[in-house]
Amino acid sequence: MDSQIMHVRNLNAYFGQSHAVKDVNIAFSELSVTAIIGPSGCGKSTFIRGLNRLHEEVPGARASGTVLFKGEDIYAPMIDPVALRRTIGMVFQKPSPFPAFSIFENVAVGLKLAGVNKKQILKDAVERSLRKAALWDEVKDKLHMPGTSLSGGQQQRLCIARALAVDPDVLLMDEPTSALDPISTAKIEELIAELKKSVTVIIVTHNMQQAARISDHTAFFLMGELVEFGETSQVFTAPKEGRTERYITGRFG
Amino acid sequence: MSERSFDTHFRELKEHLLTMGGYVERSIEHATKALLEGDPAVLAMVYEIENKINQSHKLIDDGCVKLLATQQPMATDLRTIVAILKINTDLERMGDQAVNIAHNSERYLKEIPLQSASDLKQMAESAKQMVGLALDAFTQKSTEIAQTVVKKDDEVDNLKNKIFHQVLDYLKTHEKEVEQGLNVILIARNLERIGDHATHIAEEVIFALTGADIRHPQSAGVKR
Q1: How many other β-carbons are positioned within 10 Å of the β-carbon of residue A60?
Q2: Looking at the DSSP assignment, which residues form a beta bridge with residue A218?
Q3: What ipTM score was computed for the predicted complex, to two decimals?
Q4: Which residues of chain A make contact with B78, given a CB cutoff of 8 A?
Q5: Residue A253 is assigned to a structural domain of this protein
């Protein structure tokens, strides 16, 4: 039986008066991939940003409810959001390597900010992370080059390596392949399949075939509500909710 | 709003399947009519329709593959296309069975009909009814009609067993009529297979409509 790493209870998220995520209850299985699908503006990105407290960084944004991560509420007052975001990392839609940083520095930056300064430790961590992100062979001879000198797909894997360097338990991915070509997308998808051996992945995607291909569980969001959550094979072949059925067969959304 | 490309192709695919279903019904009708009314002239029609069934078989498979490749359907759409692929195969095999009935009837009609073959008429009626109901279940999206077909399969199976036993008993004392006896057994077997294919169609309709797999109930507890 799979154990659950994260329990979300009655999570609500707001932007000022706008109620973007409505009373969501869900539990994520450890070392699995969960896909979050739904039409634009359904609150799926806001939802995952509520899972590592990135949501509250937006001016006027607030959240309520409980997110138990390994039994501890991430919204508790003693929790340091910056440290939390190392444990629950995030990869964004657009590859975002730090422009002035080399490939090496891009991966090492999280560890340096966490106080790691020993060269050998950094070197080992950079290599390990780049290998995990399936990028090492392509960049090992040019680690001093700017991160931005890489192709779009490589930049995204660099961002994944950056998130992996601090050894997270959960990786949140917000449409990580929507700006990539099919070959780069396939590489990221293969990478996700590999990553789930050591990291729990929660991925927002607009691409339903991608959700079907890579995830173990799928959650369908509509207008801020979690409509359906289940095993991916069930959701895509025999959804229980009519609204899920209509969305995944392209009849609205 | 205009119909989406997927819906247009999907609708056409279902229409092709029903056209093919119509051919199969006619083919079985002609084959059994020739047998029951002793008119071999009708058999030519069966061979003619067989060509149309085979053309439809390829056309529908091709349509399914194209829709799967280009539209990546999900949920009910996906289940229906998978069901159509299987129903298509069942219909084509029913067409083959109609041809087999035609062949066997041709041989049978050259000699004096067997006394013990009287239940063939009822069996042919039941099998035809199953085919019609299976296609109705698909058209009307009715799990109730589909369930009726599944239940009716036992009736056809029982008739086949009854005919087998009657013919075997009869042949024990009428050895010279063994060829006619074999023809009757073969035709009963052909009709029984038609009933089986109709049952498969009904099962696929239920899968398309509900996602439930009702096949092989004895192994229902085994996760596929």
Answers
A1: 9
A2: A35, A230
A3: 0.76
A4: 236-237
A5: no
pTM of the full structure: 0.85
DSSP structure string for A60-74: TEEEEEEEEETTEET
pLDDT score of B112: 85
Which CATH number does the domain housing residue B10 bear? 1.20.58.220
The type of residue at A89 is: G
- Give the angle subtended at the CA of A134 by the CAs of A132 and A138, to the nearest 5°: 130
Return the residue of A nearest to B78 by Cα.
A237
Write the residue in B4, B6, B79 that is nearest to A237 by C-beta: B79
> In A, which residues are within 8 Å of B6 by CB distance?
250
Half-sphere exposure of A15 (CA within 13 A, CB side): 13
Rounded to the nearest angstrom, the minimum Cα separation between A145 and chain B is 41
Residues of chain A with confidence (pLDDT) below 70 = 1-2, 253
Please tell me the total count of domains within chain A.
1
Domain that holds residue B160: 5-219
For chain B, how many structural domains are there in total?
A: 1
β-sheet bridge partners, residue A231: A217
Those residues whose C-beta lies under 8 Å from the C-beta of residue B49, and which sit 6 or more positions away, are B23, B26, B27, B30, B95, B98
Output B168-177 pairs: Cβ under 8 A, ≥24 positions apart: B169/B116, B170/B114, B170/B115, B170/B116, B177/B111, B177/B114
- The answer to whether position B224 is within a domain reads no
Radius of gyration of chain A (CA): 18
Alpha carbon of B84: minimum distance to chain A alpha carbons (Å): 15
CB A114 within 8 A of CB A86: yes
Q: Which residue of B has its CA nearest to A211?
A: B74
Give A240→chain B minimum CA distance, Å. 10
Q: Note the pLDDT tens digit of each residue in B32-65.
A: 998 888 887 888 899 999 999 999 999 999 999 9
B180 is written with which tokens? 């006619």
- For chain A, positions 198-217, list CB contacts with chain B under 8 A: 208-209, 212
- For A61-181, where are the E strands, in sequence order? 61-69, 72-73, 88-91, 170-174
Q: Which residues contact B81 (CB under 8 A, 6 or more apart)?
A: B10, B13, B64, B67, B68, B73
